[in-house]
Amino acid sequence: MTMTTIAWVLAFSPICVFTYAYAVYPALLWAFSRVMRARPQYAVVDWPSVTLTVPVYNEEQAIRAKLDDLLRLDYPRERLQILVISDASSDATDRIVGEYEARGVELLRLVQRRGKTAAENAAGPAARGTIIVNSDATVRVPPPALKALVSAFADSAVGVASGRDVSVGAGDRESNRSESKYVGYEMWVRALETRVGSIVGASGCFYGIRASIYDSSFPEELSRDFASALMARAHGLRAVSVADAICYVPRAGSLHTEFRRKIRTMARGLETLWQWRRMLNPVRYGSFALMLLSHKLCRWLVYLSVPFAIAGLSLLAPSSPVSALVLAGGFIGAVAGGLAIRRARRAARVGRLGAMLGFALASVLAGVLAWVKVFRRQRSPMWEPTRRLA
Q1: What is the pLDDT of residue 171?
Q2: Does any domain span residue 262?
Q3: 110 close to 85: Cβ distance less than 8 angstroms
Q4: Between the CA atoms of 8, 14, 18 and 19, what dihedral angle is there, to the nearest 10 degrees?
Q5: 15: Cβ–Cβ under 8 A, 6 or more apart, which residues?
Q6: How crowded is the C-beta side of 237, counted as CA atoms within 13 Å?
Q7: What is the DSSP letter of 21?
Q8: What's the distance, CA 367 to chain centroid?
Q9: How many domains, the chain?
Q10: Is 180 within the bounds of a domain?
Q11: Would you list the DSSP string of 201-218?
């Protein structure tokens, strides 16, 4: 293989992988979902006991509204345990939660800050429900959502049920509207995966798991919501997305905030996939392994291939007008995206095209930096919650 051929492969590998992960794979899911026999629907005979956990760190601005929401949930109160796990909060969070003790809200405080996963681990022994549901402090869960989520467990083959995120935000800010479009796309893909078999990762904002497969010794540097679907499959169970289990997720306050969140979540996701790499074996796990490869690994490989693509285009540019044009277009797009991010950080108005370029640049840079963190073994068990728009 000549150096020119290698350069061409490197240059256009991100486009090929991106096209497969974001277009071909969903198209295949859609095609299979059209020909597969519909799964039976199971009615809830008796509502199971549920422990609803809310891990928090310094959420004094959001926790009161969150608890008011949870107390309005349409679910038998005698079968619902609301458990707030404070990761050694240093503000008024614990005091505010204590005001709700008479209404049945329980507080479990960690004496030392250890991160979100450690807080979730601590919740395991304190949970009394047969279903454990996790919800973030800043998301809003409408009253019917919990019953919709829990009803999925009427099917004994379901081990994990994930809610449907709806991205919301104040005003008409373009700087983070692309996030909302991406969330909608992701929920559509998960709905297709549910029809075909199983989703390969749950929404950390609102998802439930059977207590029988809940791991209270889960590694603190890994992503539990992603791994929950892998745990379910390892136990011979499915993970599903529940369309009616809506939770409203405020958009990140800025592209900069979203940028930091993407680095953290992607790096933890890569570490989690490495720990559960056996699930990529199609001989043992069948279509689930192929879906995991397509939905997760291929998306992340796009970012890993970007630096190599730039190197390939740079080698080809002197002799290939097409490569030179692509390289120049990428440079111009990156500059425009960087300017959009800068304007957004200064609270200036950003146009729709600028917002899209800023979101794309933030996503690519975050993906590349996530790979760097993984290669350098920079694990991040500590947790800094994403502060989102109200």
Answers
A1: 43
A2: no
A3: yes
A4: -10
A5: none
A6: 23
A7: I
A8: 14
A9: 1
A10: yes
A11: S--TTEEEEEGGG--TT-
- For residue 69, is it within any domain? yes
Report the distance separating Cα 21 and Cα 66, nearest Å.
35
- CA-CA distances (angstroms) from residue 309 to 2, 322, 335, 356, 376? 16, 14, 18, 21, 21
* pLDDT value, residue 256: 66
Cα 159 from Cα 287, distance rounded (Å): 17
CA 181 to CA 179: how far, in whole Å?
A: 5
Three-state SS annotation for 274-322: HHCHHHHCHHHHHHHHHHHHHHHHHHHHHHHHHHHHHHHHHHHCCCCHH
Tokens of 168: 């919301």
Burial bucket for residue 304 (CB in 10 Å: 0-12, 13-18, 19+) = buried
Q: How far is CA 351 from CA 251, 342, 361, 388, in A?
A: 17, 13, 15, 21
pTM: 0.88
Identify the pLDDT of residue 345: 61
Three-class secondary structure of residue 78 per DSSP? helix
Look-up of token digits 């006991």: 49
Taken in order 160, 219, 98, 205, the sign of the CA dihedral is negative
The SS3 assignment for 345 reads helix
Per-10-residue mean pLDDT, the chain, length 390: 83 92 96 87 89 95 94 96 95 95 95 90 95 95 96 96 87 56 92 95 94 94 93 96 94 68 88 95 95 96 92 86 82 73 60 68 84 81 56
Res 317: pLDDT: 84
Q: Is residue 121 part of a domain?
A: yes
pLDDT of residue 324: 86
What range does the domain containing 63 cover? 50-254
| Residue 354 φ/ψ region, left for φ over 0, alpha for ψ in the -120 to 50 degree band, beta for the rest | alpha
CA angle 26, 290, 281 (to 5 degrees): 170
Number of H helices, E strands in the chain: 13, 7
Q: What is the CATH number of the domain that holds 247?
A: 3.90.550.10
The CA distance from 339 to 333, in Å, is: 10
